[in-house]
């Protein structure tokens, strides 16, 4: 593999990693603070993409579509929390898994009913079209760099919110000792609702930003959800910093693995078997990395501080 292709794949991995972080950040807060397993979190990523595509088509521009889709994604998350999820907080994890899996099935069918099964395409905003020369003969899309910058800025803002504000202190207290927080008079129901809403909006934001580079289609959040769970396990449940580091790591492993493994297997196998074996091994790399990390650090790289 050439240096140019390696650099492109590394940037693609980082860009994929920040999208994973936007999904995983809300998931790790919901799981860490509320001890709630939300398998429907990937559906909120899908809803964000569909809302962004619809509002962009309606307004004729990506930016108004983004501004309209964010509060709409927040409203969808709050509505789901009010209708379904708040009734599951005191139930066991199996009940939560079964109920949120049902939400996945329902919303996937609802999306097909409203938008159809054909993939939707969202054009790249004109302001971010074209590429930037990273080295002679190598252009990298501006929009992908914008996704990377937006993800890093969001990660920094979220870290400041969680670590440096009173609201963040309540979130961290809820993650470490929820019964004590309730005993001190904090309205944990409202706190849970706000955390859930913010998580849904972050997942929706990831879907909106991914829409111009991916096809918007039913079920698009399922594969992202699996990797998001890997991210929060590696990073440490309830840790925003851990989610960010783990998301970048998973994004790089996933992207570079799929690019490098077929080439590496050609050292030992003929081209056709090498492609097949390389693709199979590449799909396993993230889970092998997770197992190795958990063997060394069972609570993840940056576990949330216990109270």
The level of helicity is: over 70%
Count of DSSP-assigned helices: 11
> What would you report as the Rg, rounded to the nearest angstrom?
20 Å
Shape: globular
Q: Note the main sheet.
A: 2 strands, antiparallel
Give start-end ranges of low-pLDDT stretches: none
Tell me the number of strands: 2
Summarize the structure.
Helix content is 74%, strand content 3%. With 307 residues, the protein is mostly helical.
Question: Your description of this structure?
Answer:
The protein is mainly alpha-helical and 307 residues long. It has a domain of 211 residues. The chain is built from 11 helices and 2 strands, in the order ααααββααααααα. It has a two-stranded antiparallel ribbon with strand order 1-2. α2 crosses α9, α5 packs across α6 and α10 runs antiparallel to α11. The model has no long low-confidence stretch (mean pLDDT 88). It is a multi-pass membrane protein. It comes from Paracraurococcus ruber. Its main location: membrane.
Give the helix/strand layout.
Layout: H1 3-34, H2 41-59, H3 62-83, H4 93-115, E1 131-135, E2 138-141, H5 142-164, H6 166-176, H7 178-183, H8 188-210, H9 221-235, H10 240-265, H11 271-296
Antiparallel strand pairs: 1-2
Helix pairs in contact: 1-5, 1-6, 1-8, 1-9, 1-10, 2-3, 2-4, 2-8, 2-9, 3-8, 5-6, 9-10, 10-11
Write a concise keyword list for the protein shown above.
307 residues, mainly alpha, two-stranded antiparallel sheet, 11 helices, 74% helix
């Amino acid at each position: 593999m050439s240096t140019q292709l390696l650099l492109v794949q590394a940037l693609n991995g980082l860009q994929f990693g920040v999208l994973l972080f936007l999904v995983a950040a809300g998931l790790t807060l919901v799981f860490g603070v509320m001890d709630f397993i939300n398998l429907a979190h990937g559906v909120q990523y899908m809803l964000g993409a569909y809302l962004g595509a619809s509002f962009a088509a309606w307004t004729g521009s990506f930016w108004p579509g983004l501004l309209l889709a964010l509060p709409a994604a927040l409203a969808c998350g709050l509505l789901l929390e009010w209708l379904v999820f708040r009734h599951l907080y005191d139930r066991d994890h199996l009940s939560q898994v079964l109920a949120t899996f049902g939400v996945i099935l329902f919303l996937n069918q609802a999306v097909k009913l409203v938008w159809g099964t054909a993939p939707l395409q969202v054009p790249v905003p004109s302001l971010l079209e074209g590429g930037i020369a990273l080295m002679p003969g190598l252009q990298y899309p501006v929009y992908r760099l914008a996704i990377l910058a937006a993800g890093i800025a969001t990660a920094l803002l979220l870290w400041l919110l969680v670590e440096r504000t009173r609201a963040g202190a309540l979130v961290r207290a809820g993650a470490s000792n929820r019964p004590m927080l309730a005993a001190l008079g904090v309205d944990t129901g409202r706190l849970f609702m706000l955390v859930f809403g913010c998580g849904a909006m972050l997942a929706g934001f990831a879907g909106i930003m991914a829409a111009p580079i991916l096809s918007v289609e039913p079920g698009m959040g399922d594969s992202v959800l699996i990797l998001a769970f890997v991210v929060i396990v590696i990073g440490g449940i309830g840790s925003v910093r851990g989610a960010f580091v783990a998301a970048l790591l998973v994004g790089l492993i996933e992207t570079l693995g799929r690019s490098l493994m077929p080439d590496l297997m050609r050292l030992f196998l003929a081209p056709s078997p090498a492609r097949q074996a390389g693709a199979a091994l590449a799909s396993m790399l993230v889970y092998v990395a997770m197992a190795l990390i958990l063997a060394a650090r069972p609570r993840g790289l940056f576990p949330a501080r216990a109270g």
